């Protein structure tokens, strides 16, 4: 199976969808923040490992606790995934924190600040003339 094949894309999408539902509905660990979402899932071609990218809306402490809770409940989540998906092998789950959304928001805010600063300097130059 090629890395970017249709089958691989479908498996990645299904694992992402099911893991999102499992985290939201099934895992009852109090450390897992309620505003946790799955942003992506990458399953290896041999179906042995799945890297699940997690985004947490909260402070650094909430992110750390959420990752601890997810890692502790990985075997139970894997069991639930095996029950929901009919795969030859149920992949071992590896969680990674995805901070790209926060990085994008921060960069957008900085761009807006620069644009606002440029507009102010243009207005001050026009009023000086």
In words, what does this structure look like?
The chain is elongated and about 75 Å long. By secondary structure, it is α+β, with helices and mostly antiparallel strands. Helix content is 57%, strand content 17%. A hairpin with a 5-residue loop joins strand 1 (36-43) and strand 2 (49-56). Helix 1 (6-26) crosses helix 3 (74-84). It contains four helices and three strands, in the order H-E-E-H-H-E-H. It has a three-stranded mixed β-sheet with strand order 1-2-3. The longest helix is centred in the last third of the chain and has 29 residues, at 100-128. It starts with 5 loop residues before the first helix and ends with a helix.
Describe this structure in a few short sentences:
The protein is α+β, with helices and mostly antiparallel strands. It contains 4 helices and 3 strands. Strand 1 and strand 2 (49-56) form a beta hairpin.
Please report the number of helical segments. 4
Show unreliable segments: none
The value of Rg in angstroms is 21 Å
Largest sheet: 3 strands, mixed
- Percent range of helical residues: 55-70%
Give me the count of strands: 3
Strand order of the largest sheet: 1-2-3
- Strand and helix order: HEEHHEH
Q: What is the strand content?
A: 15-25%
In whole angstroms, the N-to-C terminal distance is 67 Å
Which outline best applies? elongated
The secondary structure category is alpha+beta
Overall pLDDT score: 89
